[in-house]
Specification:
Distance between the termini: 23 Å
Shape: globular
Number of strands: 8
Strand order of the largest sheet: 2-1-3-4
Largest sheet: 4 strands, parallel
Length: about 325
């Protein structure tokens, strides 16, 4: 993808190499097929920062049980949200990267590099180097820090490019621009639909990780509280919960699938937002927008409306640009 279309220089300006900005999200399979999904899931679930079980035992379970069973089901879910542009996550991320490049201006070039799958981190970094970027910074698409997202991304960047090669922007779970963009998009949906209760659904995490020091739950709680405060929501008008549970061990509670169905009778018209996802993806479009909506209606609810993720919203683009400027360029070392 083109790093930036805004490459014109002001007359008399000093020529210097642009700063590269690598946008990174979790990633997506290359196609909504069992084979492509299996390849993607194998890379994702094989990461010890994501699943920290005994490596030999987990290899056997992953290869012989999880992947054969889960890949066809996940492929069907991906087909339900796949478009002519391909994976929603990748397509949206590309649009966001293009708008971020325009917002940052001619001193920057922007490329996309996913933690797993394509376009890869290596491909994104190579694209930026090809544009003459001697310094590269990374903007993770994860507002709340967890070892399973930002942590594994930082580790992989250090492995590929050296400890001082590519610096990541810190978690922005409380950033005023990010909170403001979220609050504005939720307020618009509330006003248009007259919803009286809002659910904030974040991706789940094994409880053990939090008990071992992962700050993710604290970050999610702070994000939700800040959005609620910005919207002047009383405590009884919003609910925080966690989705996408996987495996048998205890995860963060309450579970979105359970709590939303419990709310169906009391709040038959319910608004749900997913603040931890900066781009719509399988978890927001299919898990919440299709499956949970169907279950909610079957439980007696009348309407479950999902607020779109920030995606390429101009308010989020401006906030993201400020996050990038805050760490660029003096806080990074030249790319090896």
């Amino acid at each position: 993808m083109s790093a930036s279309k805004n490459t014109s220089r002001r007359a008399g300006s000093v020529s210097r190499s642009p700063t590269g900005v690598l946008i990174s999200n979790i990633g997506s399979p290359d196609a909504p097929t069992a084979t492509a999904v299996r390849r993607y899931l194998d890379e994702f679930l094989g990461d010890p920062m994501v699943v920290d079980q005994n490596r030999l035992l987990w290899w056997v379970v992953r290869k012989l049980i999880i992947l054969p069973l889960r890949s066809p089901r996940s492929a069907a879910a991906y087909r339900a949200v796949w478009s002519e542009e391909g994976s929603p996550l990748v397509a949206i991320s590309k649009r966001f990267a293009e708008k971020l490049a325009l917002e940052l201006g001619f001193d920057f070039r922007v490329a996309l590099g996913m933690r797993y799958g394509n376009p890869s981190l290596a491909a994104g970094a190579a694209e930026l180097s090809g544009h003459g970027c001697e310094r590269i910074v990374c903007l993770p698409a994860f507002p709340q820090y967890s070892r399973t997202t930002s942590g594994t991304l930082e580790k992989e960047l250090a492995r590929r490019f050296g400890a001082d090669g590519i610096a990541c922007a810190p978690a922005y779970y409380a950033d005023s621009g990010y909170i403001g963009a979220l609050a504005a998009s939720i307020a618009e949906a509330m006003e248009a639909g007259g919803f009286e209760h809002v659910v904030f659904s974040f991706h789940g995490l094994p409880l053990r990780y939090v008990e071992n020091g992962d700050p993710y739950r604290d970050h999610c709680e702070q994000t939700a509280a800040l959005i609620a405060a910005r919207l002047s929501l009383a405590e009884e008008r919003w609910t925080l919960c966690y989705q996408s549970r996987f495996g048998r061990e205890p995860w963060l509670e309450p579970a979105t699938a359970d709590r939303v169905l419990e709310l169906a009778r009391r709040h038959p018209r319910l608004l749900i937002a997913c603040p931890g996802f900066t781009a719509d993806c399988l978890e927001t479009l299919e898990e919440i927008g299709i499956r949970l909506r169907k279950d909610f209606l079957a439980r007696g609810g009348l309407e479950l409306q999902v607020v779109p993720c920030l995606n390429d919203d101009p308010r989020w683009v401006r906030a993201a640009a400020n996050c990038v400027r805050a760490i660029s360029p003096c806080s990074t070392a030249p790319l090896p």
